[in-house]
Amino acid sequence: MAPQAAACGSFPAEPLPLEAVRLQxxxxxxxxxxxxRCKGVIVPLGxxxxxGPTGAIGTDALTAEAVALELGRRSGVLVTPAQSFGMxxxxxxxxxxVSLQPATxxxxxxxxxxxxxxxxxxxxxxxxxxxxNIATTRAAFAQAYGTAAARGLPVAGELRCRLANWFTxxxxxxxxxxxxxDREGHHATPSEIALTLxxxxxxxxxQRPLPEAAPAGPIHGPEDFRRRHPDGRMGSxxxxxxxxHGARFLDVAAASLVEDLRDFLADSPxx
Length: 271
Ligand code: NI
Description:
The protein has 9 helices and 4 strands. By secondary structure, it is α/β, with parallel strands linked by helices. The protein has one domain: 3-Layer(aba) Sandwich (Rossmann fold), CATH 3.40.50.10310. The protein has a 4-stranded parallel sheet with strand order 2-1-3-4, with helices on both faces. α3 (59-75) packs across α7, α6 packs antiparallel against α9 (243-266) and α7 (190-199) crosses α9 (243-266). Bound molecules: nickel (II) ion (NI).
């Protein structure tokens, strides 16, 4: 039997309605009462950046938020609004990209964690949709721990932050390999595009096979990115993406992260 999540009681037997877990739709007395039984919270983190010639600019934010909300429904853990701007400096050669510099994103995430910690949240679970956010997010966590201690927040000794990249969860990568093989590539991947097709009916699948994408390689800045990858893809074939694949990716990602979240919530230094 799966261990109970110590910081959050037990998970619901059936997924909760979406509105029950969206922090935006709750009142402060509801959050105060939630904190008496659960110290966990989920923060979706995306990016607003080009996703090849056929993918939506908001792909990383749409996918992170969808996975986070599905995870919230299955766990009963509240989900904050998505942080939809990420560190996308290397994508700025393509119109529509909006990037936070690493120091800016670090400050944003630090302040998000400190705000939540101040009210008693002890387990901050960040569901990330963009590889470019990873280093900065880890740095933000390190800084937030230091600040929580320096400010003498009551939760400082219990504060834990975890970064969960939905697209690198083992079952997600297995499914991507099964469906797309090495056509998955590294950016504007068919798996993430499939998820957006599932989430947003106005988006249409690419109608023709795309030319071969340049393989992944070192990137030294926005101009270098666009020169090496003129249509914005890195070794991927988003033509293979289908909406029904997206539904499977959402299910597999949420199922995988719900177990990770359960372990995270149960982690206690007192044991
Ligand atoms: Ni992406």
